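Q: Hi! First time doing this. I have a protein sequence and I read that you can turn it into a structure. Is that right? Here it is:
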Amino acid sequence: MKPSLFDVQSLLKNSIHVKEVVQKSLSDQLHYHNAYEIALILKGNGRRIVGDSVDRFVDGDLTIMPPYMPHATYTESKHHVVNNDESIHAIVIYFLPDWFEDRHYNSVEFAPLRLLFNNLKRGIRVIGDSYITIVQLLKKIVETENGLDRLLLLLNLINDLASNPNYEYLASSIYQISNREDSIEKINKIYKYVMENFVNKISLDEVADIAYMTPPAFCKYFKNRTNKTFSNFVNEIRIGYACELLLQGNSDISSIAYLSGFNNFTSFNKNFKKFTKVTPSEFRIKSLSSLEFSE
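A: Yes, that's right. Below is the predicted 3D structure, encoded as structure tokens:
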């Protein structure tokens, strides 16, 4: 099935569409919606691709996506993480902010709202002081059946986020949204192949064949679409996986380097510091001590 538009507008009979996701695992295809999406991960962890960004999501992750932003989520494959619980439980809300007339929306009072929706073009992850309030409002929206009450709660949510902009961007500032189906389909095939094979050697010729391109043409295409080189993308995925193994604390660092797909320890160390700003041993010590402190 080609990754394409997931038509939400047809579901928005009451301005807001709410769904609950309960699955054993996720291996999402790159897709986009014609509405805004708010997603709260109640339980689950894995990788999230939004535009040109690759990031991890964990329990409690809260994001808002704009219309037509390509994105996908993956839980860890069982052959990558032994005894990993891949189950996921999430609340997802879709909406279109077409409740305001232009003469109101463009007024001075709505300046914070206009700024919020402009920033939403990159997708955001909610953090900081706003987080608890937004989560409480989301859960109330799910529990409320009356359409008008739901709308009022959503307006409160948007107003709180506009008044207290505690969030971080997902896609980079130079990312350009493209909803061309053929382009998204090609990138999706590449992402999926890397997610399933990053612990093994990945040759440029193999991936170029998937995209039906020569290696030089593929490298140029990938850089233009994602704002990063293909080798950087693969190494970013591998380092993210290495971080998970380091947190498990069961393997020595040299073994983790090879388990993550690196063929030599020097390359692993270099890339780890490039993406995390610390060495693997520093990361393990700092992360494990943080976990002990939180407990």
